[in-house]
């Protein structure tokens, strides 16, 4: 069967999905007589919108069986590495939770995502074209982790549990449990989501054949998220309070060469992180349903303690702690506007203040302060088959601080000033979309954004890990990066798309690694200009194209949850740097769904990235995050219980192996986690007495009329 035929059948498959979603089912007289019914709504696994891609986690056992980080690495188009961070379709990601920036340093982000169980979240939204209502500091794109669920007029409870293990040099176990409770009454609605995650893992690394290490890692995470909603006539008051606690221990065995002498080392690194967040939101509603006013006050704090001890000489090598406080007040207003066929205007403002202080042995070595005042306006209009968006955001930055660093003798210097950043800047955005029909469109987008250097890379002191062969320091002279992002995309029925985007960054912060004698130095620098090109496409192919005629398929009732199909994602990405010649690389993701007898669902997922491509100043020597995963799941007890068994990275191919080309001779680096794991997961919706209770609006959605996330959303 040729390619044209397969593409035609894929278009047929998509159109059947569309009409199946749009055609309402007629009630028979017999159905009207039924006193009690249970209605189950199937969630879309993937949903494409003009500015974002939405991945459902709650109903996808292949994604929610491990940690949030493990689930993210399975998403087509997302690349996560230690050297380039997290990128989606070539754009660096700023991580939000429930519509709010996490405001944590890059050092703590991985620990947070590894500690959060994936079965505790509802979905992932990747906003590839953030509008004017989002902070301009979102950089290229936003990864928004949505944890909320819908509230009902009766108590509902959902339990999720997971156990998996790895077996390399020894057995290592991982277990997580979470519970979600929510309800509504005449006065208020409430929600409680709590859980724990215990995770054992190992990491092997090799730094230029100079030093090899094996790290035995134990991650412990506990969390509780609470929300209460009060209905005040047409208005609502939303209160949220979240707690996260991480307690991690890493034992590292190393052997290497320093100053021509072989050595062995044994270190214990312990990290304790406590994070708290409180949010109050008042939603004012008017007789005109298109007019809305939201006022939001948020406060978050994060405290981190990091201690590294040399177990051989019984000496404390590092003793760092940090304290972050962030407060912001946000106003958003929307109303309809007579522009063309229809339109609306959105405007608002944000004031934010952040303090971040780090200490080394009780002495403050970094005191960072940032104040941001911003406002925005955005117009949206519709003219026949065209949708238009035009907006701008004005932001005023005032960033300063002091730092101290140790000299070669270990003495702490006197205070020095961080490179200040005081600037007022406009960040425009524009979008034009042509709708061929519902859910089939072509769109072009532009936005200008900024990315502030992570506080951890500003700190000139080592706050990660100390060893004789490593010199890891931040750079207090780093400046923010400015992005111009362009995108064009054709999308059809959420599942098929083809697109191209390019990000042009000025003063992009990148990592460089060099070696002098027996010391490998890790630094962060600004690059004058960086361009990232990304071409990507996704298309579903039903397996029946290989066994049935077109005439037979025209009679078939397409339901994506009930048929066998293959989803193909492919992307080509190239990083252009000003001082070196670079090569691009391909990313492939194949996801196959097969419905076995007894309605058992088999899902296989394969990721592969080609080698020899550039990630900034690094070249991949082996396929990045290459993995083959399988999941088998079945629902029981009227779909209340879902049981899944799974195996990830079956062929043990997932690893990172690069060489740095920022100097000659090159520095070679490799790392390998114990990624081959086997496990079982459970999701149980505890039955309730009142099955006729009506499902209400989401507990804490910013829009009272919709149901997109229970906690405050942008």
Please provide a written account of the structure.
- There is one protein chain.
- With 714 residues, this protein is mainly beta.
- The protein has a 22-stranded antiparallel beta barrel.
- β3 and β4 form a beta hairpin.
- The longest helix is centred in the first third of the chain and has 20 residues, at 3-22.
Please render the helix and strand layout as text.
Layout: H1 3-22, H2 29-32, E1 46-48, E2 52-56, H3 68-72, E3 78-81, E4 85-88, E5 91-97, E6 100-101, H4 106-115, E7 123-127, E8 141-146, E9 156-167, E10 171-184, E11 188-207, E12 211-232, E13 235-258, E14 261-285, E15 292-310, E16 315-336, E17 342-360, E18 363-383, E19 386-403, E20 416-417, E21 421-437, E22 440-451, H5 455-458, E23 470-472, E24 481-492, E25 496-516, E26 519-542, H6 550-554, E27 565-576, E28 585-596, E29 600-609, E30 614-615, E31 618-620, E32 627-636, E33 641-648, E34 656-660, E35 667-673, E36 677-686
Parallel strand pairs: 5-8, 23-26
Antiparallel strand pairs: 1-2, 2-7, 3-4, 4-5, 5-6, 7-8, 9-10, 9-36, 10-11, 11-12, 11-35, 12-13, 13-14, 14-15, 15-16, 16-17, 17-18, 18-19, 19-20, 19-21, 21-22, 22-24, 24-25, 25-26, 26-27, 27-28, 28-29, 29-32, 30-31, 31-34, 32-33, 33-36, 34-35
């Amino acid at each position: 069967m040729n390619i044209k035929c397969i593409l035609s059948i894929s278009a047929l498959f998509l159109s059947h999905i569309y009409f199946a979603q749009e055609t309402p089912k007629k009630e028979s007289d017999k159905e009207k007589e039924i006193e009690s019914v249970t209605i189950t709504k199937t969630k879309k696994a993937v949903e494409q919108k003009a500015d974002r891609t939405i991945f459902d986690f709650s109903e996808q056992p292949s994604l929610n069986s491990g940690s949030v980080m493990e689930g993210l690495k399975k998403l087509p188009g997302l690349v996560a590495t230690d050297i380039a961070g997290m990128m989606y379709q070539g754009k660096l990601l700023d991580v939000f939770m429930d519509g709010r920036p996490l405001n944590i340093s890059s050092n703590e982000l991985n620990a947070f995502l590894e500690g959060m169980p994936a079965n505790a979240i509802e979905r992932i939204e990747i906003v590839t074209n953030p509008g004017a209502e989002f902070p301009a500091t979102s950089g290229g794109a936003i990864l928004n982790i949505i944890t909320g669920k819908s509230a009902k007029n009766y108590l509902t409870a959902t339990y999720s549990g997971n156990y998996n293990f790895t077996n390399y040099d020894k057995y290592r176990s991982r277990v997580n449990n979470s519970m979600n409770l929510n309800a509504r009454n005449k006065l208020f609605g409430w929600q409680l989501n709590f859980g724990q995650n215990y995770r054992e893992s190992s990491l092997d690394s090799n730094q230029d054949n100079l030093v090899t290490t094996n790290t035995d890692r134990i991650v412990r995470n506990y969390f509780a998220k609470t929300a209460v909603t009060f209905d005040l006539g047409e208005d609502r008051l939303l209160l949220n309070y979240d707690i996260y606690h991480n307690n991690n221990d890493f034992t590292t065995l190393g052997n290497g060469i320093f100053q021509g002498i072989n050595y062995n080392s044994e270190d214990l690194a312990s990290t304790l992180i406590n994070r708290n967040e409180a949010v109050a939101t008042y939603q004012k509603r008017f007789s005109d349903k298109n007019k809305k006013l939201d006022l939001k006050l948020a406060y978050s704090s994060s405290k981190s303690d990091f201690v590294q001890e040399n177990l051989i000489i019984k000496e404390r090598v590092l003793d760092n702690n940090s304290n972050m406080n962030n407060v912001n007040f946000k106003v958003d207003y929307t109303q309809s506007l007579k522009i063309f066929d229809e339109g609306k205007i959105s405007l608002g403002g944000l004031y934010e203040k952040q303090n971040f202080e780090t200490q080394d042995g009780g002495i403050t070595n970094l005191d960072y302060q940032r104040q941001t005042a911003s406002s925005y306006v955005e117009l949206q209009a519709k003219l026949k088959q065209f949708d238009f968006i035009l907006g701008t955001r004005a932001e005023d930055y005032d960033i300063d601080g002091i730092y101290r660093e140790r000299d070669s003798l270990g003495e702490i210097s006197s205070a020095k000033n961080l490179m200040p950043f005081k600037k007022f800047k406009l960040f425009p955005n524009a979008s034009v979309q042509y709708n061929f029909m519902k859910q089939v469109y072509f769109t072009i987008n532009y936005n200008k954004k900024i990315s502030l250097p992570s506080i951890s890379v500003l700190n000139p002191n080592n706050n990660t890990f100390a060893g004789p062969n490593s010199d890891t320091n931040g750079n207090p002279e780093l400046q923010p990066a400015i992005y111009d992002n362009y995108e064009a995309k054709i999308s059809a029925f959420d599942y098929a798309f083809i697109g191209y985007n390019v990000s042009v960054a000025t003063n992009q912060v990148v990592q460089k690694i060099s070696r002098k004698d027996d010391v490998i130095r890790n630094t962060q620098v600004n690059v004058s200009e960086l361009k990232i090109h990304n071409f990507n496409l996704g298309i579903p192919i039903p397996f029946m194209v290989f066994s049935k005629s077109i005439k037979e398929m025209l009679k078939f009732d397409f339901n994506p949850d009930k048929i066998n199909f293959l989803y193909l994602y492919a992307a080509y990405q190239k990083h252009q740097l000003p001082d070196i010649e670079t090569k691009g690389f391909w990313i492939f993701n194949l996801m196959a769904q097969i419905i076995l007898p007894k309605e058992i669902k088999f899902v296989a997922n394969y990721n592969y990235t080609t080698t020899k491509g550039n990630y900034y100043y690094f070249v991949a020597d082996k396929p990045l995050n290459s993995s083959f995963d399988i999941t088998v799941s079945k629902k029981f007890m009227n779909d209340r219980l879902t049981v899944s068994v799974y195996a990830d990275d079956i062929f043990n191919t997932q690893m990172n192996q690069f060489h740095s080309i920022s100097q000659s001779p090159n520095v070679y680096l490799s790392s390998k986690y114990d990624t081959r794991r086997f496990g079982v997961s459970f999701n149980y919706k505890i039955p309730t007495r009142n099955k006729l209770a009506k499902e209400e609006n989401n507990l804490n959605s910013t829009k009272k009329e919709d149901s997109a996330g229970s906690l405050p959303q942008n």
